[in-house]
Design a protein that fits this description.
This protein has one helix at residues 9-12; strands at 18-25, 31-33, 38-47, 56-62, 67-74, 82-90, 98-108, 113-122. By secondary structure, the protein is mainly β. The strands form 2 sheets. Strands 2-8-7-4-5 form a 5-stranded mixed sheet, with no helix packed on it. It has a 3-stranded antiparallel sheet with strand order 1-3-6, with no helix packed on it. The longest helix has 4 residues, at 9-12. The protein is elongated. The protein starts with 8 loop residues before the first helix and ends with a strand.
Length: 123
């Protein structure tokens, strides 16, 4: 006879289920991009929960420039695993020089949502 006890504390606190490790833009910490170029956003995140993620989406948006891109839905990551996804975002040709804030949203099938902001400069 084996008694199985599952630790559900990770599921009680959704904040602990998914962790965004890094967000890199064009492989730089503070990115500069020219109008008409692509801003490549790399998102590395882990599933710290006890259930696999069956459907996840990433959306990157910059409101002032009026640009947005969605990646997914895609599978993963599995429990205790990580995944790296890249999202290319085209910068409009008429973008004025300045600093802009990118909003990155990660959403999973179980209703978990993470939002991060990163600045970049149009030169």
């Amino acid at each position: 006879y084996t008694l199985k006890i599952y630790d559900r504390t990770l599921e009680t606190y959704p904040r602990r289920k998914t962790h965004i490790n890094t967000i890199r833009m064009n492989k730089m910490v503070y990115d500069e991009v020219k109008p008409g170029d692509h801003l490549n956003i790399d998102v590395n995140f882990e599933n710290w929960g006890i259930y696999n993620v069956k459907r996840a989406t990433i959306r990157v948006t910059e409101y002032e420039l009026g640009i947005s891109r969605k990646l997914g839905p895609f599978k993963g990551p599995k429990a205790n695993k990580g995944v790296l996804k890249s999202v290319p975002l085209g910068i409009p040709l008429d973008a004025k020089p300045g600093v802009y804030t990118l909003r990155m949203t990660l959403t999973t099938d179980n209703g978990l949502k993470r939002v991060r902001h990163r600045d970049f400069r149009v030169i």
